[in-house]
Each structure stands twice: as structure tokens, then as C-alpha cells.
Amino acid sequence: QVQLVESGGGSVQAGGSLRLSCAAFGYTYTINSLNCMVWFRQAPGKGREGVARINRDGESSYAESVKGRFTISQDIAKNSLYLQMNSLKPEDTAMYYCAARTWACVDWVDTSAGAMNYWGKGTLVTISS
Predict the structure, then answer these.
(1) Can you give the pLDDT at residue 9?
(2) What per-residue confidence (pLDDT) applies to 28?
(3) Residue from 101, 96, 95 nearest 118 by CA
(4) What gap in Å lies between CA 13 and CA 71, rounded to an integer?
(5) Are 59 and 47 in contact, with CB atoms under 8 Å apart?
(6) Regions of the chain short of the pLDDT cut 50
(7) What pLDDT, on a 0 to 100 scale, did the predictor assign at position 65?
(8) What gap in Å lies between CA 36 and CA 69, rounded to an integer?
(9) CB 82 within 8 A of CB 65
(10) What per-residue confidence (pLDDT) applies to 21?
């Protein structure tokens, strides 16, 4: 089993920045088997959507709504995933979740919420106008 723990959420004004972190805990063998890491978000009254994903080899992709503003990165040695969020907008307000699975990310259809093995409990991001 793998436990994912998010941190770094908070409240900022529009135009500001936040950096989210996700730490993975568990057996080294299990953590090393994770090949696809994804940041999802869920706004009040809406479904969970993927915003950024990264494979273990570093290949990454972003939802159109965050391209050019968000950057996903990982530190495999520290078992950590990050999401740098710049130029934040009120519509970025949501609970942000870290998720992972053992097989590689392919595309956003493939990398749906239902296709992830492990989830964190989320960290809340609130952007005021």
C-alpha cells in the first residue's frame, strides 16, 4: 500500500502563486512501482478533473485550463510530487488531490479518476478575486 499526503494549499489573491506538495509513504518497492502521478482537483458542485500528470520518466502533460500557469515536477529520490501554480484565478479554487498508479499515463481519457490506484486526502486551494 502507498499513502499519499498533500500539503501547501491555502488562500491567495488572484494572480498569486502556490506550490503544492505530495509525499508518498510506504514500502520502497511499492513506491518505486508507481509510474503515473496526477494532480486532480474538484471544485464545489463539480466533478474531479485532472490538471497535470507526469510519468516516472518525466513525460508530463497539462489540462488546457492550466497550461502555461501550472508546472508539475517530481523528486523521485524524495518520493515527492509537486505542483507549482502561478497566475492563479478564482476558477482554480478547488480541493486538489494527488493520485498515483502503477502503469504509465497515456492521455487524459486514460488517466481518469477511476483509473488511479492511490489517492491522497486533498489540500484546499482558495483564490479570491
Answers:
(1) 98
(2) 84
(3) 101
(4) 19
(5) no
(6) none
(7) 96
(8) 21
(9) no
(10) 98
Judge whether 42 and 94 are in contact, CB under 8 Å.
Answer: yes
Say what the pLDDT of residue 103 is.
92
What sign does the dihedral 101-103-105-107 (CA atoms) show?
Answer: negative
Instruction: Please give, one letter per residue, the 3-state secondary structure of the chain.
Output: CEEEEEECCEEEECCCCEEEEEEEEECHHHHHCCCEEEEEEECCCCCEEEEEEEECCCCEEECCCCCCCEEEEEEHHHCEEEEEECCCCHHHCEEEEEEEECCCCCCCCCCCHHHCCEECCCEEEEEEC
Which residues, at least 6 apart from 35, have a Cβ–Cβ distance to it below 8 Å? Answer: 55, 56, 101, 102, 103, 104, 105
Q: Name the one residue in this structure whose C-alpha cell is 499513502.
A: 3
CA distance 51 to 92: 10
As a whole number of angstroms, the distance between CA 81 and CA 6 comes to: 9
List phi, psi (to 5°) of 66. Answer: -120, 0
| C-alpha torsion 55→58→61→65, nearest 10 | 110
**Residue 33, Cβ density class (10 Å: 0-12 exposed, 13-18 middle, ≥19 buried):** middle
